[in-house]
Input
Amino acid sequence: MFEAADKCVQKNLILFMAEEDMTRGCNGRVAYLVGKRLGPACLRNKARRRLREVARLEGAPWPGARCLLVARNGADSREFTDLRRQLRKALSSLAGKKPGPTSMAAAVRTRRP
Output
């Protein structure tokens, strides 16, 4: 996935986004990756929960897209609004790249309440 995906690096997260294989359906998928260098299991779990919630609030899973959200240092303790702003920024920066499903992700983001 890493070679075929567009990548956007933010301070506390990295977003990889690639086109979804249409034979599996077009509902989209999101995976979360939190490495051991982030800290003990309780901090890794906290960071994973925060990434899941931020992605959910931004409309994940995005139809037609495979996404990988990678937690970086500080994802467990950063302000929640900052994490959400970073994900929005990553989505909007990937929406400008072509080709790929990112235009779909941008369209999905516009229907956010």
